[in-house]
Every structure is written in C-alpha cells, then in structure tokens.
Amino acid sequence: VMSILLHGDAAFAGQGVVYETFHLSDLPSYTTNGTIHVVVNNQIGFTTDPRMARSSPYPTDVARVVNAPIFHVNADDPEAVMYVCNVAAEWRNTFNKDVVVDLVCYRRRGHNEMDEPMFTQPLMYKQIHKQVPVLKKYADKLIADGTVTLQEFEEEIAKYDRICEEAYTRSKDNKILHIKHWLDSPWPGFFNVDGEPKSMSCPPTGISEDLLTHIGNVASSVPVEDFKIHSGLSRILRARLEMTKNRVVDWALAEYMAFGSVLKEGIHVRLSGQDVERGTF
Predict the structure, then answer these.
(1) I want to staple 178 with a disulfide (CB 3.0 to 4.6 A). Which of 12, 77, 150, 195 is the partner?
(2) Looking at the structure, do residues 114 and 54 belong to the same domain, yes or no?
(3) φ, ψ for residue 192 (rounded to 5)?
C-alpha cells in the first residue's frame, strides 16, 4: 500500500493540517512509512497572487520541516513528470519517508464558473490564453517524432470520448444511488441489495450493574501490592471507589467503564496521544 495525497498549491501552504501531518509522518504510532504528496501548483491558488498568500517562495516549503525531498517539475512536460514520479516512488519505497512532487502548471479557466481570472491576473491570463494545451503539445511532439501517427492519436481521443459519452448516457438510466460504492470500507450487511442502509436499530449494548461495579473497583485499585503511588493519584482512586460504591459516575469513570466493558469481551482497545499517556483522560 502506498499513500498518495493530492494537494492544491494554496492549500498546501495554507492549511494547518498539512504541516500537522508532516510532523506525524515519522512518529512510531502514526507513520504511513512515507506519503507521496502531489501538489497541483497553478501558481495562483484560488485567486490570490502568491506574494499576498504566503511568506515563502514555494508553496511546498512547508515540507522542509521534515527534510522531505521536493521535486519541482514542469507539468507541460509529461515525460519529466513521469520520471519525477518514478523517482518519488522509489525514494518512498527505499527510505520510507515523505516526498513531494510539485507540478508547476497553470489553470486555463477561473477558480469556478463565476470567476473571471482576467480581473485578478490579467497579465498571466494573457500568457495562458497563448499556451498550447499540454495534450496537443505532447501529441504534436510524438507525431513529429514518428512515435505515433495522427490517426492513432485521433483514434485514442475518440475512444476516450466514447467511454465518457457512454458512461454519461448510462447515468441517466440509474434510478438508485449506490452509496456503498463510495465507502472506502463497505460494512458487510449494512446495506440492502438496492444500496440503501438497512434499518438503523441498534442491538442492546447495556451490561449488568455487577459488571459495572467490578470494573469500577478494578479501576480504583492498584494492581501491585505494597506499591507506593503518588498521593495525588491515590486521592483520585479513593474518589473513584467512593463513586462506585454510591452508584455515581463522572466522565472519567464512565469512559473507564466503557473501555473496561469492551476489554472484558476480549476486544483490544488502543489509546494514543500525550493526554492519554500522562493520564489527563
């Protein structure tokens, strides 16, 4: 399995979650053994000139916090893009570290159908309108080299158009929305044959008071005899035992009982994070 994240240039520089996940990338409990980050860099983000959007020259500079290699590649050169992506995959496979591919490209139209980019980037869009689209540019090169003929190219384009048109025609016949196709891990038995969720009734999950008392007592005790614990902690344990006796729970004890009841059924519970480790929760 190889994780690939696709980013926009403005989002890569501006979303805190990108920086946060880079810092998770090499932690023992969270690593994916290297993620390949592909940045589709149209050089203006949404509508903002980079000088007004970030403090560093490249949107990918945020990846330097983990010394990830960053490949800036001209997206108008498909062979260079393929080469760089192969190197990125090999890097990730060899060193199990994050790597970034920065596809330096442009956006031919506005950010959305309401956006007229000539208002905000007139000089850039005059240049873009003169640019030959990458598909035509590469096709012309391959035809000129004799790698493919014009007929082969046109047949390939027609074949792809046909796939899209047929799918579009079929979509009009679909009366049922198959939700489960969009779930990355469809739960068996959760949907009926038409792709609709089954009734949402929940099986009873309650447990007996005796079991709750048992969990409360265990949660209030120290498993080792003659073990000297911190006075602050022993005060918490005494209070917890008192609550269990009085059939009262606070958030922490309720959480403990929830985990305890799941563990009693032999189901593994994994807690992670600094607040868990130091016992805040």
Answers:
(1) 195
(2) yes
(3) -85, 180
Distance, CA of 224 to chain centre: 43
Q: What is the DSSP string of 97-162?
A: --EEEEEE---SS-SSTT--HHHH-HHHHHHHHHSPPHHHHHHHHHHHHTSS-HHHHHHHHHHHHH
| Domain membership flag for residue 272 | no
Asked whether the whole model's pTM tops 0.85, one would answer no
Number of domains in the chain: 3
The SS3 call for residue 170 is helix
Q: What is the pLDDT of residues 9-20, one digit of tens each?
A: 999 999 999 999
* Residue spans of the chain under pLDDT 70: 178-188, 195, 274, 277-281
Phi–psi pair at 90, nearest 5 degrees: -70, -40
Shared domain check, 242 and 140: no
Q: For residue 247, what are the domain limits?
A: 209-265
DSSP of 72-85: EEETT-HHHHHHHH
Q: Which two tokens stand for residue 208?
A: 């007996």
In whole numbers, what is the pLDDT of the chain averaged over residues? Answer: 90
Burial code (b: 16+ CB inside 10 Å, e: under 16) for 84-108 equals bbeebbebbeeeebbbbbbbbbbbe
Q: Which helix (H) or strand (E) holds 37?
A: strand 35-41
